[in-house]
Amino acid sequence: MVSSLVHCGVAGLYFALGTLAAVSNTIYLISNAEVPALGQPGLTPIGQKRAQTCLPALFNPLNVGLIIACDPDSGEDDIQYCQEAVATVTPTATALHLQVDTSWYAHLV
Fold it and tell me: What domain of life does the native source organism fall in (predicted)?
């Protein structure tokens, strides 16, 4: 697994190695793929390639059942970061025949 992460060079990919209270599932947190410098929106071409090829290949054998992200349509100040997060995980969700769930975010704002 580590060699796959190094090969893909996915920025911001963290693994929760333990379990949470009564939850026995592994949780993978992805902030986003590479973004342009100076606060420019979107993903870089390398970030897009990694989101479209590396992440789906990495997560395909892992039995992922849910992908969540913040809601880019929330109107909050962090809309750019939500757009980048959704752009990062959408190709993986599509490859795994899942939807990106942004509904949880409404409960926090």
Answer: Eukaryota
